[in-house]
Design a protein that fits this description.
By secondary structure, the chain is of the alpha/beta class. It contains 5 helices and 5 strands. It has a 5-stranded parallel beta sheet, with helices on both faces. Helix 3 links the parallel strand 3 and strand 4. Helix 2 runs parallel beside helix 3. The radius of gyration is 13 Å and the shape is globular. The two termini are 18 Å apart.
């Protein structure tokens, strides 16, 4: 699916993975900003107000669960309602449930399939237009 006009924030501590996912999303037409830490991701979320936050779960220091907790504690005018996707190598049902319970809107396992991630993001865009 095309992601033309969507602004995404990708929070991923592994540089190669970040570059690969950002490139995949940009090839679908999205504009992608990247952050390497949860703290940087939170700052950019408030500053850029992306349409969708895509965050790795396992990061040194603060993990993706801590990040989404902070995002969800923000007011709507600060980005607290931003659609979000958890990226994780843990693909069991309980891992997905934990990500959703923490505040993520979707869970996509690694290694990331471009079509799956783009489809999830496109679904958020369709909901926003309604």
């Amino acid at each position: 699916p095309r992601l033309d006009g969507l602004r995404l924030l990708l929070v991923e501590d592994e540089r190669e993975s970040s570059e690969m996912v950002a490139m995949m999303l940009e090839q679908c037409g999205a504009t992608v900003a990247t952050a390497a830490t949860a703290a940087e991701g939170l700052r950019l979320l408030k500053e850029l107000r992306p349409d969708v936050l895509v965050s790795d779960i396992e990061m040194p220091g603060e993990d993706g669960y801590a990040l989404i907790g902070k995002v969800r504690s923000l007011g709507a005018d600060e980005g607290g309602n931003t659609h979000s996707v958890a990226l994780t190598a843990h693909a069991r049902a309980e891992d997905r449930l934990r990500a959703l319970a923490a505040g993520f809107d979707a869970h996509v396992p690694k290694p990331v399939e471009a079509a799956e991630l783009a489809t999830v993001i496109a679904a958020f865009a369709r909901r926003r237009k309604r």
